[in-house]
Amino acid sequence: MGRFPSTPSRPCDVYQELKKRLEAHLRGVLQAKYDLQPDTIAMETPPDLRMGELATPIAFELARKLRKAPKIIAQEIVAALGHLDGFASFEVAGAGYINARLDRAAGARMAAGGEAGAAAGVASGLHSLVEHTSINPNKAAHIGHLRNAILGDTFVRLLRASGQKVDVQNYIDNTGVQVADVVVGFLHLEGKSAADVRALLEELKSKGARIDYYCWDLYARTSSWYEQGIEEDKAARKRLRYATLHEIEHGGNETAEIAELISTAVLRRHLETMLRLGIEYDFLPRESEILHLKFWEAAFDQLKKTGVLYFENEGKNKGCWVMSRATNPVQNQAGPEDDAKVIVRSNGTVTYVGKDIAYHLWKFGLLGRDFGYKPFFTYPNHECWISTENGEEPHPHFGGAQAIYNVIDSRQSDPQANVIQALRGMGHVEQADRYTHFSYEMVALTPRCAVELGYDVSEEDLSRPYIEVSGRKGFGVKADDLIDKLIAATRAEVDARQTSRDEAERQRIAEQIAIGALRYFMLKYTRNSVIAFDFKDALSFEGETGPYIQYAVVRARNIFRKGNTTPEAVLAEFAKLADEAVRGYLTGEAAEDIWTLWLRAGRRTLVLEQCIATSEPAHLARHGFQLAQEFNNFYHKHHILTEEDPARKTFLLATAAVALRELVTVLGWLGIESPEAM
RNA sequence: GCGCCCGUAGCUCAGCUGGAUAGAGCGACUGACUACGAAUCAGUAGGUCGGGAGUUCGAAUCUCUCCGGGCGCACCA
Question: Which three-class secondary structure state does DSSP give residue A41?
Answer without folding.
Answer: coil
